[in-house]
Amino acid sequence: MAAVLSQQTCKYDDLRRKMSSERKPVSHDPVIAKLDVEYNELLLAWRMFQESLSPDDRIDFQQRPQTVEDVLRVVREAAEHWTSSERRHAFRCSTAVFNRVATTMDSHSTMLSVLPDSEIYSSLLYTVLQSVIKASTKYYSIAEGLSRTLADINEAIRAAVKQMIGLGTKLSVVHFIARLYSQVFLFLGEFMYWYSRKAKCRILNSHNQDFHSNLGDLVCSIKSSSGIIAHELTGVSRSDDAETEQERKSSQLKDSYSLGECHLSQAGLKGEERRNASQTTITKQLMWDMQRDAAERSRMREEREVLLSRFLASLNSKLFYLDEHPAEEAESLSEEPEDSRAPSVKLPQGSRHKFTRVELQVSSKDLQDYFDNDDQVYDFDPDSEIFADASVIESLRGWTRSLRSQVLAIAGLHSTSFTSPVTLISAYCTSLARQQKLPVISHFCCLPREPPPAGSTRARRGLIALTYSLIRQLTELVPPVLDYDSTCDLSADRFRKLDGTFKSWKEALSVLDTLLLFAPPILFCVIDGLDVLEDPSTDGYIQLLVQLLVGHPKFLTSVPVNRNTLRLRNTLFKILFTVAGRPTSLLESLSESQVVFTE
Predict the structure, then answer these.
(1) Does this model's pTM top 0.85?
(2) Domain shared by 592 and 466, yes or no
(3) Which of 525, 522, 524, 578 is nearest to 392 (CA)?
(4) Which of 256, 277, 295 is a domain's end point?
């Protein structure tokens, strides 16, 4: 990690020297000076960001000041891309929210117009906005998070701008506006850093992006600063300003390490002071992530009955019987959880290692070459209704409501003319889990279109894709810092052994097994279409994967009690297979009670 940061610092310093002629002179006014420092830092961060982007994600800017119209053009192009995309349902939310962004974008020009050198500030702002919107266009979860954030910022600034009309601008207001845009520039720089880090880990396509938890504190500060400007202009604070300030304070109270203040402390700093403050922010972000992850895991364990009930209620709203069938009330989730009497054990005094989640994702990034993230979800109309036999619906309800780890396989008919109802069940369960922030790993199996390399088959490539896809999704669900002994090898060397062939198949299964030891207290695993991978070349291999997953609920995962003691717990592991026909690779690994057939 230190080597990576050192490399980035050297690149940062080299680029700073090259750009010395482009930097804006710093004002003698100390408040404006802070804005000028942030301007120069944002310019530098943007240059680095541009260099890191692929040509398709990069904008070729004309040599002239950038305006609101330039930003609106990029927003329109993004909307056109989303509406024509095969996955337009996924981008539906981004399209709607970016309409809000477009209608409020001109507020920046009005607000910045009271500052000296306003065109310089606004041109850089609109330049960076074009870059980040364009770079996010292909990634629906990032596009959605960015669009919501920009809409919130723009609307807060627009509310303040309305108070400026017809009023003179006092020096104090100018200073408040300078502070506001110091925060806006800092936020944009932090976003580009966050994006670049995700790109380095190759998880921009992830379906589990948590945009707000990393940058939400800065957004709250920007909204609060906008409210202060409105108050300064009118002498009257609005109720929603008070709510924003309360939201910011509440966020800080939850963060015992004052992450928000740590972010803001970077504003106006230069050189070594800036680097030190940035490093402190990174460290505190990691500490906060660890604290939040531990709290979230504890909440899941305590509220698993409530969480499953909520999931079941939503699932019930989409399920309909093919034939008339009396409605049944959901049974109470009263059974005793598997780990309610789990013992504590002393750790062996062997060598232990610590590994961050980011390091794990960097080490495993080459696995992305063997699968497509789009195969982890299924594009369907979220308003679709699911019609199924009574046996399927009742089995699905029982699988959902149980407080014990369970496996369920639903086998339907082969279909080529329309989406199989059993595939829709998997699609909806996957989507619902993500909507309700429940940990889920999923994959919809298919055969690759391109010819396989010599010595392989399409079915083998599809099975490798499934396995590596599950591994990569689990790297996003492990704790921010993994503390493990020498028997759990998750080093970069081990991931390098996974070469996309069956020579490393046992190694891949072993890595998957190890990662499951760090799974959250509740984990859904949804796999559709194992039947398409059935082939003489995969005979025996699919069974090994299924047996690993099905057997894992019997193993205890570990929760630290203190440095030398672990409390053993079972992850509540909900595994759902949906298939067409009767694939022997699946049926041989499951009992009759775990399989339901539907015509």
Answers:
(1) yes
(2) yes
(3) 578
(4) 295
Quick one: which of 297, 214, 276, 324 has its CA closest to 521? 297
Q: Do 374 and 254 share a structural domain?
A: no
Strand partners, 483: 354
User: Do 163 and 285 share a structural domain?
Assistant: yes
Taking residue 416's Cβ as centre, other Cβ atoms within 10 Å add up to: 6
C-alpha 577/C-alpha 9 separation (Å) is: 47
CA distance 25 to 44: 14
Q: Which two tokens stand for residue 38?
A: 């942030």
pLDDT tens string for the chain (599 positions)? 444 445 555 555 554 555 555 788 898 999 999 999 999 999 999 999 999 999 999 998 888 899 999 999 999 998 888 877 766 666 667 777 888 888 899 999 999 999 999 999 999 999 999 999 999 998 988 988 899 899 999 999 998 888 776 555 677 788 999 999 999 999 999 999 999 999 999 999 999 877 777 788 888 889 888 888 877 776 655 445 545 445 544 544 455 446 777 888 888 888 888 898 888 888 888 888 899 999 999 999 999 999 999 999 999 999 988 876 554 444 444 454 555 444 444 444 556 778 899 999 999 999 999 999 999 999 888 788 888 899 999 999 999 999 999 999 999 887 766 778 899 999 999 999 999 999 999 999 999 988 888 889 999 999 999 999 999 999 999 999 988 776 788 989 999 999 999 999 999 999 999 999 999 999 999 999 999 999 999 999 999 999 999 987 554 555 554 555 445 567 899 999 999 999 998 988 999 899 999 87
Question: What's the CA gap between 597 and 422, in Å, rounded?
Answer: 10
Q: Which domain covers residue 409, as residue numbers?
A: 303-322+348-597
What radius of gyration, in Å, describes the C-alpha atoms of the chain?
26
- As a whole number of angstroms, the distance between CA 388 and CA 408 comes to 15
In what side-by-side order are the strands of the sheet with 440-444? 440-444, 522-528, 572-580, 406-412, 595-597
Contact 365, 197 (CB under 8 A): no
Those residues whose C-beta lies under 8 Å from the C-beta of residue 197, and which sit 6 or more positions away, are: 358
Same domain, 362 and 460: yes
Q: How far is the C-alpha of 2 from the C-alpha of 473, rounded, in Å? A: 25
191 in any annotated domain: yes
Query: Residue with structure tokens 């110091």?
Result: 182
417/560 same-domain check: yes
**Contact in structure between 332 and 402 (CB atoms under 8 Å):** no
Q: Quick one: 267 and 311 in the same domain?
A: no
Distance (Å) of CA 371 to CA 350, 374, 500: 36, 9, 10
* DSSP per-residue letters across 388-441: E-HHHHHHHHHHHH-SS-EEEEEEE---SSS--HHHHHHHHHHHHHHHTT--EE
Do 239 and 367 share a structural domain?
Answer: no
In this structure, what token pair is assigned to residue 580? 């067409």
The total of structural domains in the chain comes to 2
